[in-house]
Amino acid sequence: MNLNQTVQTTQLVITGLPGCGKTRVIQSLPSDYLNPLSDNETTLTINRPIKIVEVLEVNGLEALLNADRIWCVIDVRSIFLAGRDDWLEARLKNLVKQANGIVFSFLESSSLDEQAWWSRWVNQHAKGLPIVRWLNQRFPPSFSDQWAGFKMNPKAELTLLKKGCSGVEHFSATALSNLQSFHFSVKRISLEHLLFGLDSSKQNLGMKIVRVQGVVQTIEYANLVAIEGSALRWDTFATTSDTEARSLTIQGIGLEKSWLEELVNASLV
């Protein structure tokens, strides 16, 4: 397809909480259907071109206003914890209300109880919305038979949003649009101390930490450890890559930099 030509496209927007797997979901779409356009946009051609846009916190409102279809990705490995995650649940409720379909991600690492919990949650807050299960970072085989995603059936709430009515909370203008990012250079740390401090900050102090990423040297392990923290969980795994070794990025809303600096420094050994 000649990108210089004017082509009528359908814009597919991928939403979800931070760290839910949006980027991986897009990357797992069959390669013959994908042609790179820019860092966070691709074109999917099945019968007609579909422009795929991943909603980042800085482009959320603009992307939703231009959306023809919306998929909401939900990481089903962890469930909401009452109190600590109420604000995240409120955001996700808003996202599923505007979606045409749900993508359950990371099923291979989710228990049957967790999957059942999320099925009930979607049924309660977006009854009747179709769900596709993204297993082992692959879409179901039906995709290869020209499955182009969920039917284009824009929700009433999205129409209200486009008209600027008050029937929909303008979450992207207020929720994660002011996402903060703090970067730390770290030497050797106590991984247990760091994760305990981050979890306590969320649980006891109500800090809205939504993303933690880094590659660090720890006292617990001889090898480098990659940290992948999302809105609902912490994951760590061994890595041999030292591209971003001894660095840590913490993202969230309304965070106190001095507190995070103190927490990270207290983890150093």
Which helices and strands occur, and which strands form pairs?
Layout: E1 10-16, H1 22-27, E2 34-38, E3 41-46, E4 48-54, H2 60-65, E5 69-75, H3 86-97, E6 101-105, H4 112-125, E7 131-133, H5 156-163, H6 171-174, E8 180-185, E9 188-189, H7 191-203, E10 208-218, E11 224-229, E12 234-239, E13 247-253, H8 257-267
Parallel strand pairs: 1-4, 1-5, 5-6, 6-7, 9-10
Antiparallel strand pairs: 2-3, 3-4, 8-13, 10-11, 10-13, 11-12
Helix pairs in contact: 7-8
In spatial order, strands of the major sheet run 2-3-4-1-5-6-7
Order of secondary-structure elements: EHEEEHEHEHEHHEEHEEEEH
- Main pleated sheet: 7 strands, mixed
Tell me the radius of gyration.
20 Å
Distance between the termini: 55 Å
Tally of separate helices: 8
Q: Quick one: how many beta strands?
A: 13
| Secondary structure: helix percent | 25-40%
**Structural class determined from secondary elements:** alpha/beta
Low-pLDDT segments: 1-5, 32-39, 153-175
Strand content: 25-35%
Q: Overall mean pLDDT score?
A: 78
Would you mind describing this structure in some detail?
The protein is α/β, with parallel strands linked by helices and 269 residues long. It is 28% helix and 29% strand. It is built from eight helices and 13 strands. It has helices spanning 22-27, 60-65, 86-97, 112-125, 156-163, 171-174, 191-203, 257-267, and strands spanning 10-16, 34-38, 41-46, 48-54, 69-75, 101-105, 131-133, 180-185, 188-189, 208-218, 224-229, 234-239, 247-253. The strands form two sheets. A seven-stranded mixed β-sheet has the order 2-3-4-1-5-6-7. Strands 8, 9, 10, 11, 12 and 13 form a six-stranded mixed β-sheet that branches. α7 packs antiparallel against α8. The chain is globular and about 55 Å long.
